[in-house]
Design goal:
kinase; 4-stranded mixed β-sheet; 332 residues; Carbohydrate kinase family protein; 16 strands; Ribokinase-like; kinase activity; 35% helix; Carboh/pur_kinase_PfkB_CS
Length: 332
């Protein structure tokens, strides 16, 4: 049995770091070697889970092209079940150019702009069986952000998981033009949120746009409806809004980040998701699972390479030797 089914986008990342200037006149420059690696918000989480020792399967669509072949081989070589990775000659696998500045922040640009494979996903008997055999279903909102068959299929997956009492975690991964969410996407999004057990996402960048209030008010609103919301906030760590925090009359619980030198933030949120799911499947309580997730994210942003997410042993060493910025605290 696969413990976790991850559904969503898979692509390749072409990562290019900004030049490093070695003098004030900028006449001496050091260039880093670009790297070519597996990418996509959902594929990153699947990879992170597998590296943490969690049996994982992946459902999504790639093109019958060189990028798609790379994605397929990368997932397979990690031991991820790709039974439901659909290869479609009629679409193209996306390549994402990720430019990383001197602070580790990334700027993304995807190609091709049309006929993108990740927007498509077909519901079938094989996928239905994979959902039913899973202990957990995780999905990325990236595939729901754009018109395509993946929008409806993801809702069908959520409904199937919910009907079988399988926990669902949903990372918003919204892509907003002019800081507005498309109205059609919002319809699919709110139906997905209603079915989700755990809602994850960046507070300022994503939760800000899924309701009428600011991101904290929106997170609280979904907690009031019975969902657990994990709001990431970069170097500030993460905030938990859940029915249990309501019962204890606290608005939320703040889990601080770990104190690390940030080298590369690509995939930090995806790594966080992998850590959170892994922690919950280990039987950790909600707070310890978010600490664990912060650890995975902290390790990831402080390392560079094709697979910068930690193995379970690497994470254990990191958690032992790295301090949090402060202890977790309730926020009223």
């Amino acid at each position: 049995m696969n413990k976790v089914l991850v559904v969503g986008d898979a692509n390749v990342d072409i990562v290019v770091h900004f030049p490093q200037y070695l003098n004030n006149d900028r006449t001496k420059v050091k260039y880093s070697e670009p790297r070519f690696c597996l990418g996509g918000t959902a594929a990153n989480t699947a990879s992170g889970l597998q590296r943490l020792g969690v049996s994982t399967s992946f459902a999504g669509t790639i093109g019958q092209d060189s990028y798609g072949k790379f994605v397929q081989e990368s997932l397979h070589n990690q031991g991820i079940d790709i039974t439901n990775l659909n290869v479609d000659a009629g679409v193209e696998t996306v390549g994402v150019f990720a430019f990383v500045d001197e602070y580790g922040e990334r700027y993304l640009w995807a190609w091709p702009r049309k006929n993108q494979a990740f927007k498509e996903l077909t519901w079938n008997a094989s996928l239905q069986q994979s959902v039913r055999k899973s202990r957990w279903v995780h999905a990325s909102g990236m595939c729901m952000s754009f018109p395509g068959s993946a929008q409806q299929t993801m809702l069908t997956i959520f409904k199937e998981a919910s009907a079988n009492n399988i926990p669902i975690s949903f990372d918003l991964n919204c892509r907003c033009d002019d800081r507005q969410i498309d109205s059609d996407f919002m319809t699919y999004l709110h139906e997905a949120l209603a079915l989700s057990t755990f809602i994850l996402g960046s507070g300022p960048e994503e939760l800000e746009h899924i309701g009428p209030g600011d991101w904290r008010e929106n997170a609280q609103s979904f907690a009031n409806q019975g969902h657990t919301v994990i709001a990431r906030d970069g170097a500030n760590g993460a905030y938990i809004y859940s029915p249990s925090t309501i019962e204890t009359k606290t608005n939320c619980v703040h889990i601080p980040a770990f104190n690390v030198e940030v080298i590369d933030t690509i995939g930090a949120g995806d790594a966080f998701d992998a850590g959170f799911i892994s922690g919950m499947l280990q039987g950790k309580d909600l707070y310890d699972a978010v600490v664990y997730a912060n650890g995975v994210s902290g390790y990831t942003v402080s390392h560079i390479g094709a697979y910068s997410t930690p193995t379970k042993q690497q994470l254990t060493n990191f958690l032992t030797n790295t301090i949090q910025r402060s202890q977790y605290e309730t926020v009223s």
